[in-house]
Amino acid sequence: MQIELLGAGGYHPSPRRHTACVFLPEAALALDAGTAAFRLLRRVGEGALGESRRLDVVLTHAHLDHVVGLTHLLGMEHAGEPIETVVHAAPEVLAAIRQHLLAPALFPIQPVTRFEPLADPLRLPGGARVDWFPLDHPGGSLGLRVEHGGKSLAYVTDTRPPSQASIDRVRGVDVLLHEAYFADARRDFAHTTGHCTASQAATVARAAGVGRLVMVHPDPRADEATEAAALAEARRVFSDSQFGHDGQVIEV
User: Fold this and answer.
1) What is the CA radius of gyration of the chain?
2) What residues does 148 pair with on adjacent strands?
3) Which residues contact 185 (CB under 8 A, 6 or more apart)?
């Protein structure tokens, strides 16, 4: 399994990171469509989907830093041969996107081939199985577990520290992508805003017995010293921790 972090940041783009978009080319699958989703056009144009002419996109929730890039998918009509784009999400998320993001006054041209409510489990033509589970975040969010080719990935973003039930859903995955918005000094604010600190992400990784932790969705306003301190806090809990960065390719 190859995992490409097209966008590893949270809240808004920064000079170092665009917002959430994870690409699994072998599965013809993207997780979330934040500002980094424009990079899907280049990857698809380069032939990343192989023989597939379809791209599936699974959304965790409807906050703008995870969905605004759906509007960029209009360009799939010009990425070589036209690509069918199928977006999967909870029904209330799809309704919000259609009513607001794709309102005629904001974006009058349909950029997506079709929308489909999430099935449980979701089995995709590219061979991936996606299981989902609820997370604790204002407005709601879903954690995702992806199985493909005998390898596994969990994507847990925009959440307070997950419950034991959620930890059980990601147990033993090869790679855990987990949000780490703040360092421990801002733990109270993390809880208020529905997010996690880096050490809390590491605690999930340790409890779930995952192979590797790649932390995503950091605060775009944090400087490098603050991020380094948060990384040190995480590694004291789970040694195989790192912050993800745009353009990173993870081989499993």
Assistant:
1) 17
2) 151
3) none
Each residue's pLDDT tens digit, 139-197: 999 999 999 999 999 999 999 999 999 999 999 999 999 999 999 999 999 999 999 99
Confidence of residue 79 (pLDDT cuts 50, 70, 90): low
Give the pair of three-digit tokens for residue 220: 């775009």
Backbone angles phi, psi at 193, to 5 degrees: -90, 0
For the chain, give the percent of residues with pLDDT over 90.
93
For residue 77, name the pLDDT band (cuts at 50, 70, 90): low
Nearest to 157 by CA among 204, 212, 112: 204
Report CA-CA distances (Å) from 153 to 4, 89, 141, 242: 12, 18, 17, 16
Task: Say how far apart CA 72 and CA 234 lie, in whole Å.
Answer: 34
CA torsion, points 205, 211, 60, 81, in degrees to nearest 10? Answer: 160
Segment 6-25 shows an average pLDDT of 97
> What number is the average pLDDT over the span 220-225?
94
pLDDT for the residue numbered 222:
94
Tokens of 214: 């790649």
Residue 120's φ and ψ, nearest 5 degrees, are: -135, 105
Conformational region of residue 94, where left means phi above 0, alpha means psi within -120 to 50, and beta covers everything else: alpha
| Cα-based distances in Å from 149 to 13, 21, 91, 128 | 32, 21, 29, 8
